[in-house]
Amino acid sequence: MTLLSPLFRWDAIDNFFSDSARLQGMLDFEAALARAEARLGVIPRDAAAAITAKCQAQLFDFQVLSEGAALAGNLAIPLVKQLTKLVAADNKEAARFVHWGATSQDAIDTGSILQLRSALDRIDAELERLANSLARIVRSHRSTVLPGRTWLQQALPITFGLKAATWLDAIDRHRARLTEIRPRILVLQFGGAVGTLAALGDKGLAVANALGEELQLAVPPVPWHAHRDRIVEAASTLGLLMGTLGKIARDISLLAQTEIAEVSEPSVEGRGGSSTLPQKRNPVACSVVLSAADRVPGLLSTLFTSMVQEHERGLGGWQAEWEVMPEIVSLVGGALHHLASIADALQIDAAKMSENLDLTRGLIYAEAVQMALAPSLGRAAAHEFVAAAAKTAQEQARSLRDVLAEIPEVASHLSSRDLDRLFDPKQYLGVADQFIDRVLQSHSSHGHKSAGGRR
Amino acid sequence: MTLLSPLFRWDAIDNFFSDSARLQGMLDFEAALARAEARLGVIPRDAAAAITAKCQAQLFDFQVLSEGAALAGNLAIPLVKQLTKLVAADNKEAARFVHWGATSQDAIDTGSILQLRSALDRIDAELERLANSLARIVRSHRSTVLPGRTWLQQALPITFGLKAATWLDAIDRHRARLTEIRPRILVLQFGGAVGTLAALGDKGLAVANALGEELQLAVPPVPWHAHRDRIVEAASTLGLLMGTLGKIARDISLLAQTEIAEVSEPSVEGRGGSSTLPQKRNPVACSVVLSAADRVPGLLSTLFTSMVQEHERGLGGWQAEWEVMPEIVSLVGGALHHLASIADALQIDAAKMSENLDLTRGLIYAEAVQMALAPSLGRAAAHEFVAAAAKTAQEQARSLRDVLAEIPEVASHLSSRDLDRLFDPKQYLGVADQFIDRVLQSHSSHGHKSAGGRR
Amino acid sequence: MTLLSPLFRWDAIDNFFSDSARLQGMLDFEAALARAEARLGVIPRDAAAAITAKCQAQLFDFQVLSEGAALAGNLAIPLVKQLTKLVAADNKEAARFVHWGATSQDAIDTGSILQLRSALDRIDAELERLANSLARIVRSHRSTVLPGRTWLQQALPITFGLKAATWLDAIDRHRARLTEIRPRILVLQFGGAVGTLAALGDKGLAVANALGEELQLAVPPVPWHAHRDRIVEAASTLGLLMGTLGKIARDISLLAQTEIAEVSEPSVEGRGGSSTLPQKRNPVACSVVLSAADRVPGLLSTLFTSMVQEHERGLGGWQAEWEVMPEIVSLVGGALHHLASIADALQIDAAKMSENLDLTRGLIYAEAVQMALAPSLGRAAAHEFVAAAAKTAQEQARSLRDVLAEIPEVASHLSSRDLDRLFDPKQYLGVADQFIDRVLQSHSSHGHKSAGGRR
Amino acid sequence: MTLLSPLFRWDAIDNFFSDSARLQGMLDFEAALARAEARLGVIPRDAAAAITAKCQAQLFDFQVLSEGAALAGNLAIPLVKQLTKLVAADNKEAARFVHWGATSQDAIDTGSILQLRSALDRIDAELERLANSLARIVRSHRSTVLPGRTWLQQALPITFGLKAATWLDAIDRHRARLTEIRPRILVLQFGGAVGTLAALGDKGLAVANALGEELQLAVPPVPWHAHRDRIVEAASTLGLLMGTLGKIARDISLLAQTEIAEVSEPSVEGRGGSSTLPQKRNPVACSVVLSAADRVPGLLSTLFTSMVQEHERGLGGWQAEWEVMPEIVSLVGGALHHLASIADALQIDAAKMSENLDLTRGLIYAEAVQMALAPSLGRAAAHEFVAAAAKTAQEQARSLRDVLAEIPEVASHLSSRDLDRLFDPKQYLGVADQFIDRVLQSHSSHGHKSAGGRR
Asked: Which of D297, D305, D308 minimises the CB distance to A304?
């Protein structure tokens, strides 16, 4: 499905999940295993060098590997076979010690963890970029008022800064999660056929420790062949991020509707055109993010389902992960990159936002009036009272303020100056500014934390 | 993810969903559109020939298409652009009429339907192969007795013929479904930008009809750009099939357990080995089918979710289908082919089945004894009575028959000859044979129907 | 979760899935079984009457059943126990023959099918009501023009009649599907412990046939204890309907946005208010339908996953259906009823639709101009040309028509009268009317078919 | 669906999600809000006491609430109305200040968080119980050997202690996760209609802080009405746990198969019987856990999908959570309790485990022999060599040891004593014991951490 990859995915992430990267991950395991075993005298020192020399993806025949995997049921078996042959060509003795004491799943799982680590590093960096773009928007639009909308209806004024601050705060939570899970997820898989490392006699744990050092991966208390919570935790943490990306894209695409037109994706020559409509500028990035937001949850449910694996190594569940986990990372990576790219240069039309506040002839200020009347009339009575005036205003297509002004009870409680204030959006923003400050403060402290926190 | 494709997928299906096939599906639409419009005098007759001549996937620059899709948000826009250029090189006049009156989605959706039609034809044929293999098993093992198992516990004797007959009957139901949905699914998509065909003036419907004829696709009452039930119906009908394939693979893999060993996948040199265990013969086909059974439901949930598309053409939902629908067909196709391949040569060990009937020292015949006692003692009393004997037999590791023989009440109701009969599996198979006959009869009548029923 | 039931569900459907209805479904099976067996002399004629007399849900102690189910793992076991006791109280002899020859799953599955049949009947009727409401809208708004929208951007004019026609056509497809699947789905489950009916000796099939007659359910070729495609087909067919309901609700909620305001849910005193905003009228029905559209796909993926059941009767998969299948029917039923209720009285503001066509100062007519220029300039050149004019119009906030009028090339090809026509929405509706006619015709022919088609 | 609740759920958790608990959660919010506002002089001190006095679920008319929710679209609106009435009956003045400055979603979300906190506490305790049971099994069965199984085939010997250690380690990881997420999840929701707290003027943040103190919930940087990652993180963390519970239940149910019989669920009078088979003892707890493992992933995918919520407060997505989140907690709680209950008294048959090691006539020791030969022959050659011997043994139904003994090359490398050792399962357990020690050590250190770590 290469034709659609540049649309849905992001090279910077996909490179970590190419065929070649998958292979290299496993080969990195095999090379490190040989070196670790040589350090401990389990295999000859020469063998390690000879094996390491051949652990390069570009030396392998992919066609043969692919057919071998179809026959054997996994990729490690033909890989070990081909690696053995490659090593033997130069050093027959060394070839005896390829894959010594390991099982297919050790290579496959550890390879996946290495791929995942690279991807998470790149995602972290892109998230930082996105967060910083959002922080800039928050700062610049701290005072830009627009209609807050609930249930797809205008509700009360907010600021665009506050709206973006809720986006930013969510993104920073995802950054925190992705930092937190690293120690639990980035671990070695090494257990041999059934998790006892029996083939290494009493040296299993020592080899595991040396291997962990080689790969800079922690050694977990026990192998986890049939316990997939680590993999699924990584995927579902990315899935949480996907939900937020989707939420932001949904917001942007709604704000970009022809009739609202408060925000639009950056204009790029040739981007988002139509094959037939000359005037169209489609929100392409949003479409990509929203499509990924539709796809990732289903993929996650597969991973959650697949956790129910049999005995020491499962049948079906494990195999289901092989394409699904990379697919999740790839879709989230693509969506993140698209969103980070438009966030940098989002077109924000403050004038149109202000205009849209006036669309309802003042109905959007109804709560403000109600709260002003509530101390005298009680919240419930004020609510009913203003609701009636709102209904009248709507039915007669008049401004709420005019309708209210005609009612003696209002005049007795609210002066014309009071009404001026109540119908000014800037006067009814509550603690939006303080919320913004809190988010920005949490954002900058996060920056410090994560700088140190990453690996 | 090419490296794993030969394991998880099946060329014969995947070829219909390659980049090249995706492109060709859209080009078939463009060529047929030009011909249909020429027939009706909407565009010059020359133009149709010139356009048709260039509608060949191999003439296109995939790199350019791919980058164009990333920019424009869909594949049709760069395709139309490139096609126009190709046509113009030979016939400038004709190039004016490329994609005349259509919208991107018309080409993309109709192209998908064409791909789907080819895939469904191939799947039908493979299903027939599988069904016929299962029918052979049913006939050969009509009298092969083995333990029927419920809740993963031995329950009562059945025949392997009956077991396979329930598989066969399910497969035949899927064949019927796949035949039934064709008229609803294999239809043209053609509506122009918003489903009015406005760019064709009053000729829209005439062009649609001619186009339908060209492509041998029915013309639906109205375009269905934002109504995706047809696509999802196709996918979920395949999803139902996937469930059955998974069920059969689960059965085979459980029967193939070392401790049960009643069935095994055909032995193929090099197949299902382990990278470390010399004695292993892993059920590779089952692992593939079971992994697909874990994956397809999640993909389906995406398609169901994505049906909620906005207005005349949606944002996100439609885009989500582009890779997910092919993925579903591909995974089901791969699983089907794997299962059809092992069904042909499934190794069935009737002796071991018979042995396993004896594992419980007769407990598997408990219901038979109970039913024999029930007319005298009542069903409930007989149940309690035999349950107690079963418990004793289990605790004392004795045969149920021996325990029963010692009880005077039994002797009074059941002679030793009665007991012989009751502990003979062949005597307690009920109407298994009649069920088998019904399934085989339904199967052969299906053969006749579907021969005529397919397109 | 009773408190939220009236919001999310619909009594008329939920009544078929209450505890009491679940129980009665199973009791209807037990009563019919006794009668069928009595007819064939398998059990005494008296026994059937005595058993039938007690097969009434209200005679049962739900607390005891519920605790019994928790212990035994299914509801049939305590039900049979309690039924036996109830029968024995009046007729000790008859009590011997309760549940004769059946297994728990026979009662549970057949009971579910009976519940499902009732629910499908009710859903059919409500779908007919919805379809008829939509047909009325199609007819009344055949000429009501509004902006067609793609990718959430205005694209070209359409009519509200056409928009509703695509809704109607989809609903009619669902009605056809729900009619088609009935013969495959509404079948008896009856196989005894392992699907051989061994406990009935050679009378199994005769009893099955008689039982099918009693319950007016077809007898399938073979029992289907571990083959769940029928159940999942019913659920996924409802899931397809759910997608369409969600799509319609998404459309309505977008059209009801404050800034678009073309459509709104019928106004009902007290409906859709806010706890704090006096002016709010939230689209409550849409929120319910959309929430169900988010929920049903996940539930479906569970059913698809659960199809992988073990051997003659599964462990886990079958049990997963017990609450999930009813939940799906209940959520779809609730959403359908909500939507049918608002469709009856949807508030449609044709004036606002017309107003919204003018929002873009004529950009919505860009394709019309392009197609008018295309015969002289070629489609591609005309596209680029009009796209440039559209850009100018947008940047200078002028009307597209004015911009075009200033360009000599346009004047030479299009007269002022031509432009009048091109900027009239009614002149650029293509074959919308013919599409509407086709849908209405298909709708009325469906009415005839389904009248006869239903059971 | 009460009849099945005792089977699938657990009172101790479900009580936190009853209608009454849902209501009480919201009322706790309303009462705390009044007190907080009174402390800050926003409302009269009297009002707080009067309101608090009425915030008791049992004072409310559920029928009225339920109908009100169906009309209004959420439960908070009728709750506030009824609460206002209740307060007014005693104190008209105080009634004015009910729900002062809050929005429906503040009450609903904060109420949910309070319910969730209670549930997480209970789940923590039950997890500790389960972990301790598993730790006991690990210690008692440190030396109990059984076949390790991969791909459902016997592979190499392991110990039951090691098997249980992998279960324990996974459970302890879940405990760590559930502790880690608490600070991020257990936070106040309080933002007013659009997240500005505008109705409270400049006192919004002060009230939020006081309210957080009242409820012992942290105050997040900004309200999170349309950002649902916290809720979904809680659910998906429970979903990870569900996967592990399912994996353990799958293992137990496979080990409990009639033909393997190494483990069984504790025997309880009346439990797991069949309605027709007297000898059956069905693994009821496993069926419940496995059915929940099929159901939770689909529910999670709904929550992930529903994260895409619109603007300041969404339409459909939020509403989808109301029943789905409790359903997830409830199913996980039920599964956890079932598993914890059987783990306490799991029946483990060490003799049968040992017997099953002999089923393959020594094939299970093939890797041991291979590794013993590898230093002389090379790993690859040794693998092929032993594989051939294994094949011969299998075909001729002889013991692998006998086949090997006849081969001169073996005799030259391995003495009869060597072979004795190689065919002794206890001699080929690698570092199983060390892995067990690591898990137990991590487990006891976890105990210390979590004791302090919980809230």
From this structure: D297
